């Protein structure tokens, strides 16, 4: 179980980190005010500082209001549900990088329908493959928009 | 079928029809045209005109897919070509920024990581002022700028790109000093000049033609060794050929032109390079190409092979000198 | 009026069976690309462009503009049904359109969106019919300081309201600005914040951020709540559509105000995205039901849609007259004009009046055709929502990722969309407002460029922002909108004992 307090702290730390990244990235260029107005780094630098400052503000508010923030952010059941959604999605992206978007889409739809929707395997697999084929026909054939492809498409001779 | 006598064309056509087997290369899948500008830019127009001519005249058996990769002033497209090393089905369309961009920005490709195929046209640069300004010729305008240094605004497309390079050349050739204002594109610089927000720009003919016709801007001179081609009058009094060259008008700059170039990735068979060079050569001989050149007032000049390499080397050296002088080069 | 005579002549040109058939084909194709993942009007236009090379220019531009209208409508459809904006300018439509759909009012939301969009577009076209020559001249008065003032105005009217903690609003906005700064910097010609990654060379695409923050983030929330859309099984009857049409006059004030904002942003360089945000912001400020905004307030659908389309159609005129495209779609169309042998620019109106007025007339007809056709598709689209979540959920995920990939054809963007998705989920759960981030990403780099160009022109003097009446007026209105509410809140806080606002 995660309470709201920890979630707030973690997010504020993360945004402060992003702000700091912008500040560091901006230092590579001038951050001053030259003859012709602000130098290229000035804008990202001050924006980064602003994000860091506001994140610090969030941290401070969170800590001073600690007692009010003990409410549940994510209970066990919700965490399981979120994980059961996020993990297949991450797998989808990984497979898309390796085998192409079409194969990944077919596998992903099949998996989610079978495991979470409790459809029969044959129905799920047919839907998954069907969806991939429809996407292929519309995007590649219809609109000539190429998607990420993998070894299967190469073996089938599709470009 | 064989109309041209150039050995390149003759052999390529012979090859296409199966005469000599040793150089038989043809695309075996759809060819991707990678455009190093966003939709609507000059390079985009160039690539799409080539595409429309190839499909109209059936110059290639395979279909063409055009993709825009204009990020980072075009670097995105060149990087894409670098990663596609060895793939002869990706043709990249650009300008001289292929070999100039790596000087001014830290990029993960080197100019020689792409194979030059052809340069198809040279885009011209002119010096333009607002139509209501009192200057009738380049000399008097430059004198006025010299009299009040750093108060005249020269607009252009992007920063450390062709327009600013040319501005820098004008400055060192004449001693005048401008304030250079970079805009998102030549179109925007043209409108800013028509609205009187800047004093001059160095737009290509195509970018300012409409405003010139409408009487909002006027050209002072063209940065070309010879005057532009004769054509119909643009305004009541003047046509493109009536514009003096800048050298005639008193700015000692011989020539400043931007080549429209086509590239393949590294490591492709030389037969593939010859194949595309031949297709593009045929494109440049069509009436549609002639029409495109006329409409955009570019100079029609087809370069390939050794000729192209020589051109690139000298263009590269000329620009590099300006970059060094201005301190734009990044390590 | 000479313009009306020209317009009548234009109707004569546009109103042929052939042209009306082209309009219908165009609108249908447009709806298709608008609804499909990753495809937008620019894709459709560049696909059709080669087909139009053999057509006469009037027929060609009618086909392309009709497709453009269709795509805009299609984009609103996905915003409302799935919280995935198809075009940047329909982001503001999601704020209230999606909550309405979740409350079972998908048909109402879609009907209102389409009708107000049609209304806005007609107002935009009427404006350019009456004022075509004035508009072109007016647009010439805008330079970088005025551009900056317009962006500032759009920003000021949207930000500074809402119940979220000010720190969280600042974080969200600042991150948006930082993301917008990544990539090539126009003014210096150098790369910024790429940290040597080639993937960041062309910047962080706004569309990827939107797909992640809105589409995927929303799905994660839905999953956490347990796998279903609330109240989504409501049947859609044709009667709902008709009933909703009857409620439209109620919003006359919003319609007129939003049209005015849209037209103004269309002829100045603000563009449809800025227009829709600004219109939403003002509608919320001026409404008596402020608190209902963001929870399915119909006015929150009407306002951005009207302004978006008013801006979209009035922006075509400056494009034709000045030769500067206002959007990616307009840029592709301009390329088309040149290939058909027409030169966009001030002379187009004089040299080819048949083309220009035929186009304007086709904008009237095309919009009417488009509204009728999309209204007819509402029951079809709303029925998508009755598909079980275990099927439609993963399909939306796939659609989001395909969309993210097709933005630029970069595999890296798949990861980026995933990251933005997780960020969207966290932000929503912790009450960080997302809209300021989105607006900052859209306008951030443009505003920064305009500011720095102004500074180059003035050699570093800020006085350029009140150097003429136009820019000074814009800045004063912007400042009033930005700080007016803050000052009045401050005054009322000082008058009353303060209450904690952390949990808000």
Report, as a whole number of angstroms, the end-to-end distance of chain A.
48 Å
Rg result of chain B = 21 Å
The 3D shape of chain B can be described as globular
Number of helix segments of chain A? 6
Major β-sheet profile of chain B:
6 strands, mixed
How much helical structure, as a percent, in the residues of chain B? Answer: 25-40%
Average pLDDT level of chain B: 88
Average pLDDT metric of chain A: 89
Keywords (chain C): Membrane, Transmembrane, Transmembrane helix
Organism (chain C): Microvirga vignae
Domain DUF112 (chain C): 22-439
Transmembrane segments (chain C): 20-40, 47-69, 109-135, 147-164, 170-188, 200-221, 259-283, 319-343, 355-382, 389-408, 414-443, 464-487
What does this structure look like?
Chain A: Keywords: Membrane, Transmembrane, Transmembrane helix. Chain A: Residues 16-147 form the DUF1468 domain. The complex is a heterotrimer of chains A (159), B (331) and C (504). Chain A is mainly alpha-helical and 159 residues long. Chain A folds into 2 domains: 2-74; 76-156, no CATH class. Chain A is built from 6 helices and 4 strands, in the order βαββαβαααα. Chain A has helices at residues 4-27, 42-64, 76-99, 101-115, 121-142, 151-156; strands at residues 2-3, 33-34, 37-38, 72-74. In chain A, the strands form 2 sheets. In chain A, strands 1-4 form a two-stranded antiparallel ribbon. In chain A, strands 2-3 form a two-stranded antiparallel ribbon. Chain A starts with a strand and ends with a helix. Chain B folds into 2 domains: 7-121 and 259-326, Bordetella uptake gene, domain 1 (D-Maltodextrin-Binding Protein, domain 2, 3-Layer(aba) Sandwich); 126-249, Periplasmic binding protein-like II (D-Maltodextrin-Binding Protein, domain 2). Chain B has 12 helices and 11 strands. Chain B starts with 6 loop residues before the first helix and ends in a 5-residue tail after the last helix. Chain C has one domain. Chain C contains 21 helices and 2 strands. Chain C starts with a helix and ends in a 9-residue tail after the last helix. The chains are: A mainly alpha (159), B alpha/beta (331), C mainly alpha (504). Chains A and C meet through helix 1, strand 2, strand 3, helix 2 and helix 3 of A and helix 3, helix 8, helix 9, helix 18 and helix 19 of C.
């Amino acid at each position: 179980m995660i309470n709201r307090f920890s979630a707030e702290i973690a997010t504020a730390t993360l945004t402060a980190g992003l702000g700091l990244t912008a500040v560091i990235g901006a230092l590579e260029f001038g951050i001053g005010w030259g003859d012709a107005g602000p130098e290229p780094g000035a804008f990202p630098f001050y924006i980064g500082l602003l994000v860091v400052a506001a994140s610090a503000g969030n941290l401070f508010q969170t800590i001073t209001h600690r007692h009010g923030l003990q409410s549940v952010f994510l209970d066990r059941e919700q965490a399981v549900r979120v994980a059961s959604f996020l993990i297949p999605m991450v797998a989808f992206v990984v497979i898309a990088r390796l085998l192409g978007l079409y194969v990944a889409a077919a596998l992903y739809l099949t998996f989610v329908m079978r495991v979470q929707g409790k459809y029969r395997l044959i129905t799920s697999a047919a839907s998954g493959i069907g969806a991939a084929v429809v996407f292929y026909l519309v995007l590649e054939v219809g609109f000539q928009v190429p998607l990420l492809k993998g070894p299967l498409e190469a073996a089938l001779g599709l470009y | 079928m064989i109309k041209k006598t150039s050995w390149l064309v003759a052999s390529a056509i012979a090859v296409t029809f199966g005469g000599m087997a040793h150089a038989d290369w043809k695309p075996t899948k759809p060819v991707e045209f990678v455009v190093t500008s966003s939709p609507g830019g000059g390079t985009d127009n160039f690539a799409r005109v080539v595409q429309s001519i190839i499909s109209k005249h059936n110059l290639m058996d395979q279909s063409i897919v055009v993709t825009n990769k204009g990020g980072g002033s075009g670097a995105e497209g060149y990087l894409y070509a670098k990663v596609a090393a060895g793939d002869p089905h990706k043709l990249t369309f650009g300008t001289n920024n292929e070999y100039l961009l790596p000087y001014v920005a830290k990029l993960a490709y080197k100019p020689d990581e792409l194979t030059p195929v052809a340069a198809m046209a040279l885009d011209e640069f002119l010096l333009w002022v607002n139509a209501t300004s009192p200057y009738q010729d380049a000399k008097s305008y430059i004198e006025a700028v010299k009299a009040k240094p750093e108060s005249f605004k020269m607009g252009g497309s992007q920063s450390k790109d062709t327009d600013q390079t040319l501005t820098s050349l004008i400055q060192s050739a004449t001693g005048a000093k401008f304030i250079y204002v970079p805009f998102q594109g030549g179109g925007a610089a043209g409108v800013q000049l028509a609205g009187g927000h800047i004093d001059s720009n160095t737009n290509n003919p195509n970018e300012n033609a409409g405003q010139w016709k409408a009487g909002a801007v006027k050209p002072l001179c063209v940065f070309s060794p010879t005057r532009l081609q004769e054509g119909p009058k643009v305004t009541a009094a003047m046509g493109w050929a009536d514009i003096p060259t800048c050298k005639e008008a008193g700015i000692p700059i011989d020539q400043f032109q931007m080549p429209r170039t086509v590239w393949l990735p590294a490591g492709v068979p030389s037969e593939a390079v010859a194949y595309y060079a031949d297709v593009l050569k045929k494109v440049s001989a069509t009436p549609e190409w002639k029409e495109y050149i006329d409409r955009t007032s570019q100079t029609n000049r087809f370069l390939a092979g050794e000729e192209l390499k020589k051109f690139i080397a000298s263009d590269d050296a000329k620009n590099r000198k300006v970059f060094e002088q201005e301190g734009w080069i990044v390590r | 009026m000479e313009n009306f005579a020209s317009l009548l002549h234009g109707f004569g040109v546009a109103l042929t069976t052939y042209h009306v058939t082209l309009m219908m084909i165009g609108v249908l194709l447009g709806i298709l690309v608008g609804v499909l993942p990753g495809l937008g009007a620019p894709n459709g236009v560049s696909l059709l462009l080669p087909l139009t090379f053999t057509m006469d220019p009037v027929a060609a531009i009618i086909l392309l503009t009709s497709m453009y209208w269709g795509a805009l409508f299609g984009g609103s459809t996905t915003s409302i049904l799935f919280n995935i904006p198809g075009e940047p300018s329909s982001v503001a439509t999601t704020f209230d359109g999606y909550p309405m759909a979740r409350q079972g009012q998908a048909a109402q939301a879609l009907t209102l969106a389409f009708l107000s969009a049609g209304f806005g577009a007609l107002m935009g076209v009427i404006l350019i019919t009456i004022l075509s020559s004035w508009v072109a001249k007016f647009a010439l008065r805008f330079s970088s300081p005025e551009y900056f003032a317009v962006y500032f105005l759009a920003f000021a009217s949207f930000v500074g309201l809402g119940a979220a903690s000010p720190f969280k609003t600042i974080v969200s906005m600042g991150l948006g600005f930082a993301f917008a700064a990544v990539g090539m910097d126009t003014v210096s010609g150098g790369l910024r914040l790429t940290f040597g990654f080639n993937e960041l060379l062309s910047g962080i695409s706004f569309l990827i951020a939107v797909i992640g923050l809105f589409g995927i983030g929303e799905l994660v929330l839905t999953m956490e709540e347990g796998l279903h859309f609330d109240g989504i099984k409501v049947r859609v009857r044709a009667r709902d559509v008709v009933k909703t049409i009857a409620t439209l006059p109620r919003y006359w004030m919003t319609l007129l105000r939003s049209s005015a904002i849209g037209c103004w942003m269309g002829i100045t360089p603000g563009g449809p995205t800025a227009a829709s945000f600004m219109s939403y912001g003002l509608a919320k400020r001026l409404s008596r039901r402020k608190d209902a905004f963001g929870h399915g307030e119909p006015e929150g659908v009407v306002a951005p849609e009207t302004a978006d389309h008013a801006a979209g159609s009035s922006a075509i005129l400056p494009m034709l007259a000045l030769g500067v495209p206002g959007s990616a779609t307009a840029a592709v169309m301009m390329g088309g004009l040149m290939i058909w042998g027409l030169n966009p620019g001030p002379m187009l109106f004089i040299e080819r009046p048949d083309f220009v007025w035929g186009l304007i007339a086709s904008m009237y007809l095309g919009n009417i055709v488009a509204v009728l056709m999309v209204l007819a598709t509402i029951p079809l689209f709303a029925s998508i929502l009755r598909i079980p979540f275990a099927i439609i959920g993963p399909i939306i995920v796939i659609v989001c990722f395909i969309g993210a990939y097709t933005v630029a054809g970069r595999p890296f963007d798949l990861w980026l969309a995933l990251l933005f998705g997780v960020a969207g989920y966290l932000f929503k759960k912790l009450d960080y407002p997302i809209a300021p981030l989105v607006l900052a990403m859209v306008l951030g780099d443009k505003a920064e460029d305009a500011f720095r160009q102004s500074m180059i022109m003035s050699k570093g003097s800020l006085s350029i922002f009140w150097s003429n009446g136009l820019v000074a007026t814009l800045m004063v209105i912007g400042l009033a909108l930005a700080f007016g509410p803050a000052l009045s809140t401050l005054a009322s806080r000082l008058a009353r004992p303060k209450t904690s606002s952390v949990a808000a």
